[in-house]
Amino acid sequence: MSASTPRSSVSSRFAQFKLVLLGESAVGKSSIVERFAKNVFDDYRESTIGAAFLTQTIQLDSNTTVKFEIWDTAGQERYKSLAPMYYRNANCAVVVFDVTQAASLTRAKAWVKELQRQANENIVIALAGNKLDIVLGDESKRQVTTEEAQAYAKEAGLLFFETSAKTGQNVTELFTAIAKKLPIESVLASRGGASGAVGSNSANARRGIDLKGPSTGATGCQC
Amino acid sequence: MSVQPELAAINWNNLFAIEQTLLVQQSTDCSLFSDIFSHNAADADHDNVPPSTQSYSPAQLKHIIDSSGNLPFNDIPDLPKSSLDPPQLNLWAALLSNYRNAAQRIPHYAVSAIHSGIPPALRGAAWQVMAESSSNAALDSLYDSLAEEWTPFVKIIGRDLNRTFPEIKMFQERGGPGQVKLGRVLRAYAAYDIQVGYCQGLTFLTGPLLLHMDDRAAFCTLIQLMEDYNLRSMFTADMAGLQLRLYQFERLFESELPELHAHFLALGVSNIYASQWFLSFFAVTCPLAMLVRLFDLVFAEGAIPTLMRTALALLSRNSPILMAFDADEQILQHVLGRSVWDVFQNNPDTLIADVVTFPTCSMNHLKTLETEFNSNGKPRMTNGEKPSKQTSSSTTNHNVPLNKFSMFFTQQVPMAFKWTTPDSASPTNVEDPQATSSTTTTPSTSTTSLPSTNTATTTTTSSIATHSNATPTSSRVPSSSLTPFYQANRLSVASLDSTDSSSSTSSSSRIYSGSNTASSVSSFTIYDGPPSRPSLIGPSKSDETLVLREKVAALSAEVEKLRFELTQRERISQPLEEKSQEVNNDDDDNDDEKHPCETCEKLRMELALAKTNEALANAEIEELRHALLARKRSGAHAPSASVSVCSSSINNPNAATNIKDPSEKPLGPATRGWTIW
């Protein structure tokens, strides 16, 4: 919990966004979030059942703090029908595949398609090719080339990173890039209007006071 | 070793004396406990169920406890040591030797003992006698072959084995005995019930069982949990049952903890967090020492009431913390994390004491909420959000409680089922000793494709395969619970049937003409459209129901036959396939996988078609039953037998069997005639 406390004392702008992680089972969604939120990696992770929830805050620049509320979903195809409950109000999404599993990219593409059709219109989507550490150790294990994924990401208008939750490579970069692409300015200007997930925090109010979850549609701090 | 005389045999006088005391004290609430039995009272067949095959003397139990030091459950952290005084040994000897009998004679004593926690060394045996899973000999004998069977879920099960209870020694070692057993149980279950197959969450349901019993027993007990204890509908392809449970929970939360509920609403916290709780039965976060105590309640008092009570107890005890939060994220993080259990300070007794104080989770109340849910036809979301397309469509189709039909079919189909092998000399059947026994339990085939399949077969095949996926061989699932995808396809197939039966028939024949099986073509086209479709308002509905049921049975026989042939083929092709898969190195990572063997593919198509026919026949039966029920409600005269089938089969399939044909015997201990909530 302490990890998620915004460093609001130094920031004059605070924005909060809802992020959802999607992707095939066992590609490393939970590991990416754990690495991002707690900077740990556990070889023995339980499969995610239903969904897990975490938050993490990043300092975008000296006066901008972005907080992510992260829904980490279960990957089995069957859970597909539950996914809309989690991505419904998401401002951003990380769709994860496993660079050593070609089929997981196919699944990722399907998620991207679904998000682009069903989720928020302005949702920021990032594609993450995880388990980079494996192919760095043994390139023959790679089933999805960087070029292929990159080309797809470009075509579909996605951010793209190859990540390793195990070593931490590119994980923070991934979330930072998403934060930078999020419409902080416009949302701050509209004072938590449309997307409802963002509020300004110049009063350095403590967490939660001026922030409402996106599903309430409530406005942020009116300072 | 000399046996203390007081431990030589069960002393009923002592048991009755304690029961009397507890009865006078009125401190033990037996309502849920007796619900299970009263639910069952009308079920006369249970008088015929022999008592547990094994009788225990108190001394034997003492020996079991004393020699249990190395069993897997000892891995559970913070588990109290089992050391029982003679009166407790006496009680557990009575309960384990004939649970049903003892539970009815000394309910207060039994409940108070179960609430205090089943002694760890006896837990596995107790869970089995409560679930009546050990009496299921037919399933038991099928286990090995089912566990070896290929299903589309083999790979995903494999991926989850290393991700279940990683903190428990038994499950830690990759490829170690714990993971091997877990894999076998789940693969066997997937083969047994293809409509569920494998769903993430089942590992967490199975893990606690494996800590207390061997894998064979765990398999049988898992089946009981899924079927008799009604957990199954949460794990089917559309997870429709989960929506029902979330609805029931929401309503109970609202009425039991209104202040907290209002707080959640105000912060926009919808109850989707509970999907993690329900699908894993809290195992994702609940410390195991507490979890096994919850399982004690599950087996004694029902799974769904325990699911609900635990969720309420958890929220209630955390209420001060949760009320202090002023953001949705804080609440979500708390309720989905391990810290939510901290309020019980690692004391299972506190948890259980809290859980059993929610008597509103009675079977009747849950039933009422279920009816409400069904009539609303959609899940109720806490923050007024509309359910998504996907979820709403799947739930609106789930108008009928799953189990009334599933129970109906588990009982009925095998009853009417005559196992005839057109070519009994076929090597398939001779070689496969499981052939006959499987007819009673009708394990589903494992070889059909799934929805959203990427198989190389034609569109037609995959749509047929979807049908088969939606309806397992034993017809344990009514079409009412089928996925929307299935429903849509069913309509198209049905319309094909009704508008042009000849084309439908010929298409079946075409597929089968290439078959090298000895099965007769006609059996696949039994359901061939209007000519054989009985009128829903005809006079002799019960007869027609019977006829249809026989058709179902005939189709089931064909399906079974195909399944065995398929299994044979697969045995031949398996090594080749494994090799090719190794070469591909997991490149096809969907839940379904291509099968390179063309013959198998063809057989699969046949199988799928047979299953489609079967599903359609089942749909017919269901329609008939609805029509009969409607007639009964409107007061119209209907054949009494069939009306009884309709009304009583809902909760009492055995009664239905008896009314329909008194000469038919129940399946005996191999099937459960009663539904536990």
UniProtKB/TrEMBL annotation, chain A:
GO biological process, alphabetically ordered: protein transport; vesicle organization; vesicle-mediated transport
Coiled-coil zones: none
One annotated Gene Ontology cellular component of this protein: plasma membrane
Primary subcellular site in the record, as a coarse category: membrane
Sequence segments annotated as region (Disordered): 195-223
Localization terms from the record: Cell membrane
Topology term for the membrane: Lipid-anchor
Keywords, alphabetical: Cell membrane, GTP-binding, Lipoprotein, Membrane, Nucleotide-binding, Prenylation, Protein transport, Transport
Xref: InterPro entries: P-loop_NTPase (IPR027417), Small_GTP-bd (IPR005225), Small_GTPase (IPR001806)
Biased composition (Low complexity): 195-206
GO molecular function: GTP binding; GTPase activity
Keyword Transport recorded: yes
CDD domains: Rab5_related
Family: Belongs to the small GTPase superfamily. Rab family.
Protein name: GTP-binding protein ypt5
Lineage per the UniProt record: Eukaryota, Fungi, Dikarya, Ascomycota, Saccharomycotina
Automatic annotation (TrEMBL), chain B:
Keyword list, A-Z: GTPase activation
Pfam families: RabGAP-TBC
Compositional bias annotation for Low complexity: 435-471, 495-515
Domain of life: Eukaryota
Segments forming domain Rab-GAP TBC: 117-302
PANTHER family on file: GTPASE ACTIVATING PROTEIN AND CENTROSOME-ASSOCIATED, ISOFORM B, RAB GTPASE-ACTIVATING PROTEIN 1-LIKE
PROSITE patterns reported for this sequence: TBC_RABGAP
SUPFAM superfamilies xrefs: Ypt/Rab-GAP domain of gyp1p
Region Disordered, residue ranges: 371-398, 419-482, 495-540, 573-596, 655-677
Any one annotated GO CC term: site of polarized growth
Biased composition (Polar residues): 389-398, 421-431, 472-482, 516-525
Protein name: Rab-GAP TBC domain-containing protein
SMART domains assigned: TBC (SM00164)
GO MF annotation terms: GTPase activator activity; small GTPase binding
